[in-house]
Amino acid sequence: MIAHILSWTIFSPLLGLIPLALIPRGRETVLRASAFAASLVPLVLSCVLFDRFRGTGEFEFQEIVPWLQGFKVDYRLGVDGFSAPLIVLTALLIPLVILQSWKDHSGKIRGFLVFLLVLETGLIGVFSALDLFLFYVFWEAMLVPMYFLIGGWGGERRIYAAIKFVLYTMVGSLLMLAAILYLYSAGGSFNLADLYGLNLPNKAQMFLFGAFALAFAIKVPLFPFHTWLPDAHVEAPTGGSVLLAGVLLKMGTYGFVRFAMPLFPQASAAFAPAIAALAVIGVIYGSLVAMVQPDLKKLVAYTSVAHLGFVMLGLMSLTPQGVMGASVQMINHGISTGALFLLVGMIYERRHTRAIAAFGGLATPMPFYAVLFLIVTVSSIALPATNGFVGEFLILMGSYKSNPVTAALAATGVVFGAATMLWMVKKVFFGPVTQEENKALADLSFREVAVMAPLIVLIFWIGVGPGFLTSKMEKSVTKFIERTQWQLSIGQR
Amino acid sequence: MATVDWSTLTALATPVLILLGAGLLILLLAPLARKVFSVLILILSALAIVSALLASWGGWLSGAPLSLGLLLFDRMAYAFDFVLLLAALLTIFLSKDYLPEENIRDGEYYALVLFATAGGMIIAHAADLIVLFLGLEIASLSAYVLCGMKRNVVKSYEASLKYFIMGSIASGFLVYGIAMAYGAAGSTSFAKLQQLSIPPAEPVLVMLAVALILVGVGFKIAAVPFHLWSPDVYEGAPTSVTAFMATAIKTAGFAALIRIALSVGHIPQIPWTPILWTLSALTMTVGNLVAIRQHNIKRMLAYSSIAHAGYVLVGVTAALQKNVLAESTIASVLFYLFAYSLMTIGAFAVVIAIGRRGDQAEELTDYAGLSERHPFLAGAMALFLFSLTGMPPTIGFVGKFYLFSGAIEAGLYGLVVVGVLNSAVSAYYYLGPIVKMYFQKQKDYALPPLSYTLLGTIFLCVFVILYLGLFPSNVFLMARESVRQIVF
User: Fold this and answer.
1) Which residues are registered as beta bridge partners of B67?
2) Residue A193 contacts B where some CB pair is shorter than 8 Å
3) Reported ipTM
4) Residue A88: which H helix or E strand, with range?
């Protein structure tokens, strides 16, 4: 079992489809319970995986099975310090989303759960694939369930948002496919480890990096490729938003770490300043646009643009601190923004609106909710002792080393972001209760507390003792820096 | 002139002969056949196709390529046979319920499908331009009649006439081209054409010949700008015939194109790459862009089939660009034709299932809420459309992967970029019916009970599309093996 633990983690959610297919109509609670139980399997497996994971910097838990003969495509899996935590994060968020959607009475819950589990398989697959072809298969396959989740269970303009999401992603990823095919014809392999050693001519690197980076930048989303994100977020159901922000966006940043940068080191060094500039624009722009949003969800969506800009900034610094910060921040953003979307979803269930103007003084009827919201906000704006602080601090340190000006500009973005979030919290929670119907709102139920609890624990755990995470990432970060720098020095010679 | 060894010839040509024989037998039985015999005729044609399949399989296995003057028997020809026969088999299964619903006389119908398939197989086995032309005409003439078999429907009538006129003009071009080729080479056999000196003694004649033949074949595969007939014809023809034309007839057209390209592809004076590059890029782009605007699902699938011809042309371009005998690129073309036939027939099967007597339910709006009315049909249709888009893990994705990787090997980066961007465009209109089926309110009418033949066909397509999407190796290796030994 341990030898094939990655395959089990990837495909165990699909086993959950069997009970979902068999349970007769009308037994919604049984449906939910079985899906929830099914989603616990990959969670447990991924925790075991993370526990056994030694953080050697090499790919661990490798599995290799020949797949497409005549094309040297293998079913090749493995994880390192970048991907292992992302797998745990994915496996953690899915059961929470199922729990959160417990009260969904759309009558279509079965489909929702099916697509959620299929999505989980795709996501974990993306983070485990070490063969470019396999990676691409998971990357594209993930689109379908997400498309159905947004289109089937979303808000009013859900169809527009779903199609926009798919088309944006496809334009990017299909060009990436062309680049992957070129890499294969140049390097004779789809195996990532073989391709890392490939020293391509400069011009080819530029084009290939461009194709890969476009696919990933759209996913991140890096300014100015972000326009699909607010639409998708606002229209998606709560669970969809949580996974979009929590995991899907990480596929973009992860793609940069795993593929675009180490495969084309010279090109990434050449493009790094430009991408860093876009990232900083994203940080400031995201925070400023968030400020004027009247809708809670949209506000959180735009702060995501800013936060992901931060992650990109850390990566593009090409320094150990920056990269480490970025990879920690990927996890943090998943936790904090995932939690924020869950909280917004909870209030939406009660009031069926997300307009900030519809709330005020919520701390009075819902004190517990207010406390949790404040904790998550504080983690999102990166106050010390929360997880966000660890990541942002490292990123700022790393990017300061590579370029003080961008670091300084990004830091102002932090201030804007903090101001936005705190202003929002003040408007929603403090002061007198502004609307009559808010007075009788029920505080969080036990189920809702259970949804939030693991995330709150992680916020403080990473904030106070990030060692358990960073120690497993360290060697991989070093390896990543080596790969890009070593290649760089060869290129210059 | 070599003497013809009749016994060898009959042995090798069994698949074609079986089809022709069964077709004639059905024609004889047809006047007798009303209610009682209609099932018998279906079984008879299915048996004929299956035994032809087995015979082709035997021919494929026996290996040694053989050229018998006008006909040749190599593995590539047998591979084309497989695709054609598979398309024919699925088509007749689709037809079982559809024919009585549309008041189509089944005797002639099945016979014509068998004849058309035999025509396609003759093209695949042709060793001579005249034989190729004969095969193409047998296939086309049968298809002209099949198109008009909904005799009391004006649209069908019109489709048949349109197809006939356009097709005849195309044949005219082709015959002119063949005549020019004869003038240049002194023979119409592929072997002689292949021995044409380089540079050819009569360069103008050769160029004209190739240009005219390309125009003729371009009509048959509905490549832009010779595609204008196809949406109208596809829309007007009985749906099962449309499925057959979009797959089998198109495959036959590509068989012709590849045979011709293999015989004169070595002449460097012919600007193959620019011609095919342009043809391919235009076909993909126009097909996809116009498909976006369609409201009728048959028209949409017609334009989609134009676009897919463009993708296949990417493979043909790559094969001619890199090396006339580029093994894996032609193999990828074969694989793609196979994949494309499965997805397209599957999609048309669903169209047939949704259509009802009197009201064809061909508008996209008729698909609203299908996921609730009939989850299996909706799911299958979604899978076919995703596969046509090229989403993993379906056979459509693998097919595109093989095609585009061949083109990259050949250095056709620009064409690949055009191709992948086209895939993104195509996602837009393939998502349309999915949006309707899954995200829109139910239309209130009951689906007629579906027969097991139809559901079974759809299920088979679903299964193969998914299975080969995950494990395509063997089929691809077989396709590559087929290309390894080609004779002229």
Assistant:
1) B72
2) no
3) 0.87
4) helix A83-100
